[in-house]
Input
Amino acid sequence: MRTKIFVSLILFLFNSQNVFSQSALPVGEGSDIVEDVCTMCHDLTNITDSKRSPEQWQFVVNQMVMQGAPLQDYEVDTVVEYLSNSFGIEK
Output
């Protein structure tokens, strides 16, 4: 009986790790940067629940950089384009 409970617990933890490690972001160039950088300060629902124009995303990303988000200059355009395509007003 103890063995069954132990095995069940191990399987549950293994499966939970796989579920929690999956990204809630659509696949695309820039998704890895968004996931790595943006989740340093907040969770992904701040992004996935937002619908913004490219200009609005540019403003938000610039604000985050000014507040310390560790994005390189060359990554900013990639992130803005990804966010605009994935979480734009039309989406």
Q: What stands out?
A: The chain is about 65% helix and 0% strand.
